[in-house]
Amino acid sequence: xxxxxQKVPERQVVSFRKKVSPEPGGEATKSDRPxxxxxxxxxxxxxxxxxxxxxxxxxxxxxxxxRPASNEQPDVVQAxxxxxxxxxxxxxxxxxxxxxxxxxxxxxxxxxFLASRIVGVPYYSADVLGLVILSAILLFFINSVFFLVLLxxxxxMMWTDLRLVEDERDHPTSGAVLLRTLLFLPLAxxxxxxxxxxxxxxxxxxxxxxxxxxxxxxxGN
Length: 221
Hints:
The chain has helices spanning 75-82, 88-119, 126-151, 155-160, 174-189, 192-195, 206-211, and strands at residues 162-166, 213-217. With 221 residues, the chain is mostly helical. The termini are far apart.
């Protein structure tokens, strides 16, 4: 008996052709039915954190320190205004003024000496004396404006540990320094402007009050 050939199973062919809807009046076969993809229910959607979930309640939030006002005065000026300035600062101011005037006087004498040697005028004449006074006043003005604007203290204030401040700031402005220096010489010549510091709680002279400045002890900052 001859062997019968084995029957090879037919392979199922998957077609990727576009499904065509049946004609009207016909029934759609199983292969013609549209495929419906069911949503995945096994996965869990990650819950997005709420932007306000990590915020603390208002009563538990740390309170920030109050912001100082723009017109608030510095601590150095506030400390000076709050308490009465000791009268000992007047002695330091007197010594610093003597040093500054002495430096200006020495500079005036040196300038007058050079002028008398160049021009050939006798050193003890009235013209040379007037040149000494004029040179000393000019040097005192330049010395005061330069050092007070740059460092808020003159060489005499550096020696006696003093500094100049303004009523609303720790470092004086150029306008306040210029006004104070211009008022110093005429008010100092009247003597009354300087003696007024004995009766003022902040130990301010007239040129200090009119320019809105005060002399305080230098803390070294």
